[in-house]
């Protein structure tokens, strides 16, 4: 028994040393990311007046640098492609925890996909894994069942296979990041074929997910508690305006939250050259849409 | 409690310390500790079903004692049937009640009679199929006078509920395991380290191989109508590795854990995917169940000592019953039937005992013929697994049809490079260790300690890395 305990302890010591050497990989991982916005948030370097939250539409349709120039508010875009509202709530929570709360939040609404189960919109765990050295991120991963409690004690349990991709990730040529975190489409993809969509199907709240409605309520509550002005923005699509969703959306909105819909009478939004695809504006379209938001802020500021 | 959980990581050392340091000098107390630990282990999932295990154990203990003093054949038979009815009654009610009701209703509907189904919302107690067969084997062996009935109720309760193999086997025979509870257990350094190694390999199989294959197998099976034939085939292969890693991994952890407490359990898997024909596969897959059916069903039916037609009948009976044992679904029954069909040509041509030795014994690599035989056996098994994994028969048929379509010739849409690297590593290690009880039993054993420790640390590192994501419960828990 003595030998068993002795060699067992020695082996665990040996393993402990190897285990701790993995910390190097964990510490190095964030630096290899092309998108380091969440890292800056966690490091407390995201002290801005205005923050944009949303999915890819938020990233490409709203130009934070232009918003900054037009409103005079230091602005930054923290929208993530393919993310849903639960993820946006997490980003806001993290932002407020580690930085000075912004004065305004622009929350881009993914129209009728916002609250239903849409497979292309997910909680972007892939953005969290490279940052698992941060306890805040690790706790979130544990909470979501993506890591277990061992990760509180062992570096190896925090490691993900993405940590072993040792080369820097490539940038996207169609919508690269600008210096304000936005990702406007600057190059057309000729393989993308899309036509004007006549979307007349009425919105059905029966398909809404409780988790997403809760996340939206929590975002509103967080803004209210931290004295942040929440402005929800409904962007254009290369399709008809669906008023049934907007009616439903207004019901979910708290009185202190504001909302703005793109100018449905603006003919630009019916022209294909202002779009990259069915639901994303090209940079020229994004510039028009951002100006509308700037005007709204200037005219409706507290 | 799951073997791959943090709870178990705390539970196991705690029981180990109490067992070897506090109750070391008293076998009875050690056995009581094992019973309590087993009940905690089981109750962690649902304490209400503990009563079922205790009742089942006490019934068989009492019947065993009665059988000792009973010489009259009819009365002995009645006692045996009481045990069978009680045990299979519980199993039938919890596992098969709704299946029979549903099929009864469907059969009536077919003839135009509509009857109201009276199904119940029944939870299947974890491990009921395993411990029921274990305790039944005791009564049958006592009835057949192959085993002396025990007077030691503590040992008997410990035997039925022994936590390492309680919920998913190996299904131990009373003749092997029960006597080990009567004698003083001695701690052996080599047995304990060997147990640790087997636990490590079991965890690797479960967490690194099975759980990672499950991610892709689940995606492909759940969306089978939108994938090409080649992808569906890849999905079936991933499931083949998932179920092997999952179940044999569990068995390895169970056997390794038992060794830590001074017990020796029987080997449950002997590298089945290196089999050269289906008969060999079934001698190497879930050995404790196959031999149970062989001894308590196949041989009583006449086994192979009867005419050809009866032999064929017996083979179909044991394979179909084995399929039904796995679950109350036609997919499992068909899976059993299909394996019987695979077995049939070997039986008729009297080739079912051709490959009794280990493949490529004393050689590094197999011959081309052996590779071909292994590939055919693996493909047949993988196709059968489709029925095992599918939601229902319609899903299984659509999946099989999808595989045998022209799109089989296209490149699979799912090509996870990381997983393929892991699978290649896994297959190589399993091949190297195919003559042992588990793959890493003697691997690097004679090499310097540093080398061994680096290898074990590497396995542990992979287990840690993969343990956080996509953790799945053990497949065989549902049986």
Descriptive overview:
- The complex is a heterodimer of chains A (302) and B (479).
- Chain A has 302 residues and is an alpha/beta fold.
- Chain A has a single domain (2-300), classed as SGNH hydrolase (Rossmann fold).
- In chain A, 40% of the residues lie in helices and 9% in strands.
- Chain B is mainly alpha-helical and 479 residues long.
- Chain B has 2 domains: 6-185, no CATH class; 190-276 and 355-478, no CATH class.
- In chain B, helix 3 packs across helix 4 (73-110).
- The longest helix of chain B is centred in the first third of the chain and has 38 residues, at 73-110.
- The model of chain B has no long low-confidence stretch (mean pLDDT 90).
- The interface between A and B is medium-sized, with 25 and 20 residues.
Note the topology:
The complex is a heterodimer of chains A (302) and B (479).
Chain A: H1 2-21, H2 23-28, H3 37-42, E1 50-53, H4 56-61, H5 64-71, E2 75-77, H6 85-98, E3 104-108, H7 125-128, H8 135-143, H9 155-158, H10 210-225, E4 229-234, H11 243-252, E5 258-261, E6 275-277, E7 280-281, H12 283-300
Helix pairs in contact in A: 5-12, 6-10
Chain B: H1 6-22, H2 27-46, H3 50-69, H4 73-110, H5 128-143, H6 153-161, H7 174-182, H8 189-222, H9 229-260, H10 278-284, H11 287-298, H12 308-326, H13 330-348, H14 368-389, H15 393-403, H16 417-432, H17 449-467
Subcellular location (chain B): Cell membrane
Transmembrane segments (chain B): 6-23, 32-58, 78-97, 315-338, 371-388, 453-477
Main location (chain B): membrane
Key traits:
heterodimer, A: 302 residues, alpha/beta, Rossmann fold, two-stranded antiparallel sheet, 7 strands, B: 479 residues, mainly alpha, 2 domains, 67% helix, globular
């Amino acid at each position: 028994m003595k030998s068993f305990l002795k060699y067992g302890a020695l082996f665990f010591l040996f393993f402990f040393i190897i285990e701790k050497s993995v910390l190097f990989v964990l510490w190095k991982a964030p630096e290899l990311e092309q998108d380091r916005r969440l890292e800056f948030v966690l490091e407390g370097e995201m002290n801005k007046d205005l923050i944009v939250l949303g999915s890819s539409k938020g990233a490409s349709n709203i130009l934070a640098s232009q918003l900054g120039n037009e409103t005079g508010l230091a602005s930054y875009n923290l929208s993530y492609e393919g993310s849903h509202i639960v993820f946006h709530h997490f980003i806001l929570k993290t932002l407020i925890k580690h930085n000075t709360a912004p004065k305004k939040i622009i929350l881009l609404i993914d129209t009728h996909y916002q609250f239903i189960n849409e497979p292309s919109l997910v909680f972007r765990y892939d953005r969290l894994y490279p940052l698992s050295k941060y306890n805040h991120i690790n706790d979130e991963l544990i909470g979501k069942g993506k890591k277990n409690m061992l990760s509180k004690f062992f570096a190896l349990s925090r490691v993900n296979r993405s940590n072993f991709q040792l080369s820097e990730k490539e940038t996207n040529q169609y919508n690269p990041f600008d210096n304000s975190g936005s990702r406007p489409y600057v190059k057309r993809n000729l393989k993308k074929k899309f036509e004007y969509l006549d979307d007349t199907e009425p919105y059905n709240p029966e398909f809404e997910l409780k988790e997403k409605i809760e996340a939206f309520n929590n975002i509103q509550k967080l803004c209210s508690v931290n004295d942040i002005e929440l402005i929800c923005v409904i962007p254009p699509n290369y399709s008809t305006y669906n008023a049934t969703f907007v009616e439903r959306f207004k019901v979910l909105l708290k009185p202190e939250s504001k909302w703005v819909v793109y100018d449905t009478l603006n003919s630009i939004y019916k022209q294909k050259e202002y779009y990259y695809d069915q639901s994303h504006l090209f940079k020229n379209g994004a510039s028009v849409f951002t100006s509308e938001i700037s005007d709204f802020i200037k005219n409706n500021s507290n | 409690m799951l073997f791959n959980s943090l709870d178990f990581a705390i539970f196991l050392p705690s029981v180990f310390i109490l067992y070897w340091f506090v109750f070391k000098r008293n076998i009875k107390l050690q056995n009581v500790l094992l019973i309590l630990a087993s009940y905690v282990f089981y109750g962690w999932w649902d304490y209400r079903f503990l009563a079922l295990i205790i009742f089942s154990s006490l019934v068989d203990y009492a019947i065993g004692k009665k059988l000792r003093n009973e010489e009259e054949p009819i009365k002995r038979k009645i006692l045996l049937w009481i045990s069978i009815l009680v045990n299979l009654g519980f199993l039938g009610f919890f596992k098969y009640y709704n299946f029979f009701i549903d099929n009864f209703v469907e059969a009536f509907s077919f003839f135009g009679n509509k009857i109201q189904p009276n199904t119940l919302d029944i939870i299947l107690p974890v491990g009921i199929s395993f411990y029921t067969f274990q305790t039944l084997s005791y009564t049958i062996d006592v009835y057949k006078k192959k085993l002396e009935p025990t007077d030691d109720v503590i040992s008997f309760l410990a035997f039925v509920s022994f936590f390492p193999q309680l919920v998913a086997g190996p299904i131990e025979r009373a003749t092997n395991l029960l006597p080990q509870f009567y004698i003083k257990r001695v701690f052996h350094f080599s047995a304990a380290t060997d147990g640790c190694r087997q636990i490590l390999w079991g965890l690797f199989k479960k967490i690194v191989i099975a759980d990672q294959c499950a991610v892709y197998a689940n995606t492909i099976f759940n969306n089978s109508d939108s994938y090409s034939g080649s992808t569906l085939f890849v999905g079936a292969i991933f499931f083949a590795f998932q179920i092997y890693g999952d179940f044999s991994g569990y068995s390895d952890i169970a056997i390794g854990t038992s060794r830590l407490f001074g017990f020796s359990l029987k080997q449950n898997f002997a590298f089945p995917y290196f089999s050269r024909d289906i008969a060999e596969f079934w001698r190497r897959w879930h050995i404790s169940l196959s031999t149970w059916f062989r001894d308590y069903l196949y041989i009583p039916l006449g086994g192979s000592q009867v005419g050809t037609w009866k032999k064929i009948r017996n083979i179909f009976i044991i394979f179909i019953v084995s399929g039904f044992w796995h679950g109350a679904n036609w997919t499992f029954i068909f899976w059993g039937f299909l394996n019987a069909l695979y077995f049939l040509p070997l039986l008729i041509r009297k080739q079912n005992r051709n490959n009794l030795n280990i493949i490529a014994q004393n050689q590094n690599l197999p011959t081309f013929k052996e590779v071909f035989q292994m590939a055919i056996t693996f493909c047949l098994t993988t196709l059968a697994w489709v029925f095992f994994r599918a939601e229902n028969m319609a899903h299984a048929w659509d999946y099989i049809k999808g595989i045998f379509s022209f799109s089989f010739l296209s490149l699979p849409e799912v090509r996870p490079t990381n997983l393929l690297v892991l699978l290649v590593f896994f297959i190589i290690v399993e091949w190297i260790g195919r003559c042992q009880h588990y793959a890493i039993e003697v691997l690097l054993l004679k090499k310097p300690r540093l080398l061994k420790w680096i290898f074990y640390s590497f396995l542990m590192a992979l287990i840690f890395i993969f343990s956080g994501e996509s953790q799945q419960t053990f497949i065989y828990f549902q049986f």
